[in-house]
Amino acid sequence: MADENQEEVRQENTRETIGRLKQALWFAVGKIADEESLRRNRNVTPQFIGALMELVWTQIEAVAQDLESFSRHAGRSTITTDDVLLLARRNEDLHGIIKDSIDKEKASKAKSKARR
User: Fold this and answer.
1) Of 66, 77, 106, 113, most Cβ neighbours within 10 A?
2) pTM of the model
3) What domain of life does the UniProt record list for this protein's source (predicted)?
4) DSSP secondary structure string, 59-116?
5) Rounded to an integer, what distance in angstroms lies between the CA atom of residue 17 and that of residue 27?
6) Helices 46-73/2-40 angle, 10° precision
7) What is the pLDDT of residues 18-28, one digit of tens each?
8) Confidence class for position 29, pLDDT limits 50, 70, 90
């Protein structure tokens, strides 16, 4: 009985977290859409923002599942930059941007270690 209650509480917490994340995503997508609509002198409807938010949410879920799968396949429980690079392998431009960012971060860390 206690296990069932704990599971119900966990599921409710998960639903609440997903709801908050979707609200934050709605806000971010709405802000970007509003900025673009002003810049392009166009109007966007709340329905459009909602549909775009759901599209982005679905893509985020797919990316998260892929990253988890890559990590698990490599025998790790933590997602690494290698997993992200593997995910971006079919988009050369994105892969290059991510690779450059990772290389800059590694170089920065190497410099700070050398100073110590």
Assistant:
1) 66
2) 0.77
3) Eukaryota
4) HHHHHHHHHHHHHHHTT-SS--HHHHHHHTTT-HHHHHHHHHHHHHHHHHHHHHHHH-
5) 15
6) 120
7) 999 999 999 99
8) very high
**Quick one: 29 exposed, middle or buried, by C-beta within 10 A (0-12, 13-18, 19+)?**
buried
DSSP category for residue 42: -
Return the closest-CA partner of residue 76 out of 63, 67, 85, 87.
67
Q: Which two tokens stand for residue 97?
A: 């941007």
Output the six-digit token pair for 30. Answer: 């709405």
**Distances, alpha carbon 87 to alpha carbons 37, 65, 100, in Å:** 31, 11, 15
